[in-house]
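Researcher: Please translate sequence to structure tokens.
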Amino acid sequence: MFGSKFLQAAALPRPAVTVTKTAAVASTDLSRLENLRKKLAEDDATANSSLLDFATPVDGQDEYDSTAPVAVKRRKAASRPAKILPKPSWLKAQPATSDNYRALRSTVRDLGLATVCEEAKCPNIGECWGGGDDSVATATIMIMGDTCTRGCSFCAVKTSRAPPPLDPEEPEKVATAVTQWGLGYVVLTSVDRDDLDDQGAGHFRAV
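Model: Translation complete:
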């Protein structure tokens, strides 16, 4: 019974729904459109230049010519102050001329050691090796040779896929250098040796 009533209700005709604009809304839209048209007409009538005049680079030219020379107004840059400020003291590198620097370099040459300070062309080598009254001299020894098997673009150390073999006497040379230098502290670093089976871990341990 419920289904038959539902079908009868669904079969009844639905009232038509119509949407109409009121006269007030239609007149409002029309007035806005008319006002916009009047505004555009006034702008066209009072405009001092047209789009062609705006695009024309030379005064008095009837048509735009892309090959015509364009008058460019160049402006002078603001004048720089006559007094140039000096660079701060911490920005200036200390020259590598001290006695301590010469002693460290002589030991490195005599023992045939490599330092990252020299191989990487560090600009602070004079300050680190030279030390001073208010600072402690330091040095960074680079073990396993001066040639790396990596090719990092930011590093100045020499690279090769087949670098020279390891120096078996390097651990004793490093100990001799550290004893002679008497520095505040010494840093040990190394190149990469991908050509070795253990990547140089055994040699690093010996040092």
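Researcher: Any highlights?
Model: The mean pLDDT is 79.
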